[in-house]
Design goal:
The complex is a heterodimer of chains A (217) and B (233).
Chain A: H1 4-12, E1 20-23, H2 27-30, E2 42-45, E3 49-53, E4 74-81, H3 84-92, E5 98-101, E6 105-107, E7 112-113, E8 116-117, E9 121-122, H4 128-134, E10 138-141, E11 153-154, E12 169-171, E13 175-180, E14 183-189, H5 195-200, E15 206-207
Parallel strand pairs in A: 1-2, 1-5, 5-10, 6-11, 10-12, 14-15
Antiparallel strand pairs in A: 2-3, 3-4, 6-7, 8-9, 12-13, 13-14
Chain B: H1 8-11, E1 20-23, H2 33-42, E2 47-50, H3 62-66, E3 70-75, H4 82-89, E4 94-97, H5 100-112, E5 116-119, E6 133-136, E7 139-145, E8 149-160, E9 165-166, H6 175-181, E10 182-193, E11 212-215
Parallel strand pairs in B: 1-2, 1-8, 2-3, 3-4, 8-10, 10-11
Antiparallel strand pairs in B: 5-7, 6-7, 8-9
The chains are: A alpha/beta (217), B alpha/beta (233).
Chain lengths: 217, 233
């Protein structure tokens, strides 16, 4: 099984030089720590910065420089800052090449739910609905099952949706899967995990073709 | 045109119970601290507040929530505030949650004379319920209406007496669009300067959108998530 850090590390292998990338809160944020050597990407945070850098050194925090998770950040040389309308123009206008976000549920048609549990928890969608409605390349980073051991990869999402038919790829602690016509296609499995383990943890339709290689970190 | 008022009290003159207000800021970053404190003092209530977030329990718009001065919030993200969640789940507070990009665009549209626009965000979700759908380039889009407010209250880093504003860092966020969409826009700034001191090439919000401006005091600028790394030895 992969740790959260390893999930981030595996997704970082998908990055390509020249891409502008939006990372959501949680596991996606960790991806910035694992950009492969020689790959040149620029991170966008939807509250209004392109060229987001690492956390500041202790004592250098600036209340006027945060990311969308409200964490203090730094700006890389060549960074730029803009208002929220311009930020979402970049997102809606498909100027951002990759979006990585967390999810509570994903369906085998690529629907995603991540903003509300009726009657229990309502945090709001933030920028997630704009991101998933427009981005062509969406990767979901999440655990394969929830805290009660229930699958998060479903036939149908049970929670209110964030977007429909938009998720392309999912990286979990158990597997890497593509969302294709007909279900979740198992591409890679975590070391020490069997295809049966992935099958048992997946409620939606799982497509397995031939040998499934291990995830390489 | 001199738009300077003395302080937050003078700036907030005319704000009454039942009005719709826009308040700039993302989390606690770039919020109009002085005017929020004045709204608490003024004790106006039944407010509809349009703001990306609702502050935290004891700062930002959380201060107005604590005193039950807000009837309805229009926001995109309300986590980090227990009192907000409590009031919303119990039904005391009306909440309209809308996608962040649509919120920004709706404020911009309100200030720019665009009554409505189509966006893909929210199609197929609760957000789309009751909204007109139209297909463009083979994709469904929702009709979203512009937002305006009786008063828009924004916070800038520097401003001049004509109302020209410059923001600092990611404290810019929603402030420029909200400044455009207020019937009366109040700008509180950290530093109020004479006309000519700000480089016209680097003005973020043109003064035409601002009706009242004052230099705020004692900015607390609270940090919600202080994240740091250690210097390598």
């Amino acid at each position: 099984m992969l740790t959260k850090q390893q999930i981030a590390q595996r997704i970082a292998q998908e990055l390509e030089s020249g891409w502008y990338v939006n990372l959501g809160i949680g596991i996606p944020t960790l991806i910035a720590n694992y950009v492969p050597e020689g790959i040149d990407v620029t991170f966008q945070s939807e509250n209004g910065i392109l060229g987001m850098g690492p956390f500041p050194f202790d004592g250098d925090e600036d209340a006027d420089l945060i990311n969308a998770g409200k964490q203090t950040i730094t700006a890389m040389p060549g960074a730029c800052i803009f208002d929220s309308a311009t930020s979402f123009a970049m997102i809606r206008g498909k100027h951002i090449q990759l979006t990585v976000l967390g999810a509570m549920e994903v369906s085998d048609q690529g629907d995603i739910a991540n903003w509300k549990i009726p009657g229990k928890m309502v945090k709001g969608m933030g920028g997630a609905m704009d991101l998933v409605a427009s981005a062509d390349n969406i990767i979901v980073a999440m655990m394969h099952t929830n805290k009660r051991g229930k699958s998060k990869l479903l036939k149908q999402c049970s929670l209110p949706l964030t977007g429909v038919r938009c998720v392309k790829k999912i990286v979990t602690n158990l597997a890497v899967l593509d969302v294709v016509d007909g279900g979740f296609k198992l591409l890679e499995k975590a070391p020490g995990v069997t295809v049966e383990d992935v099958q048992n943890a997946t409620e939606g339709r799982l497509i397995v073709e031939g040998e499934v290689p291990d995830i390489k970190i | 045109m001199n738009k300077v008022v003395k302080n937050a009290q003078a700036a907030c003159e005319g704000i009454e119970s039942g009005m719709t207000l826009m308040l700039g800021g993302f989390g606690l970053c770039g919020i109009p601290e002085n005017c929020i404190a004045e709204l608490v003092n003024k004790n106006v209530n039944n407010l509809t507040c349009i703001s990306n977030n609702a502050g935290v329990d004891d700062f930002g718009l959380g201060l107005l929530l604590q005193k039950k001065q807000i009837k309805k919030m229009i926001s995109s993200y309300v986590g980090e505030n227990d009192e907000f969640e409590r009031q919303m789940l119990s039904g005391e507070l009306e909440v309209d949650l809308i996608p962040q990009g649509s919120l920004a665009a709706r404020c911009y549209a309100g200030g720019a004379g665009i009554p409505a626009f189509f966006t893909p965000a929210g199609y197929g979700t609760e957000v789309g319920i009751g909204k007109e759908v139209r297909w463009f380039d083979g994709k469904p889009h929702l009709l979203e209406a512009a937002l305006t407010a009786d008063f828009a209250i924004v916070k800038a880093w520097k401003g001049d007496k004509f109302g020209n504003l410059v923001f600092k860092g990611t404290a810019r966020n929603f402030n420029p669009m909200m400044a455009m969409a207020g019937t009366i826009t109040i700008a509180e700034v950290e530093e109020l300067v004479e006309p000519g001191e700000l480089d016209p090439n680097f003005i973020h919000t043109p003064g035409v959108f601002v009706q009242r401006i004052f230099q705020g005091e004692k900015y607390e600028k609270r940090i919600e998530q202080r994240t740091v790394r250690q210097k390598e030895s």
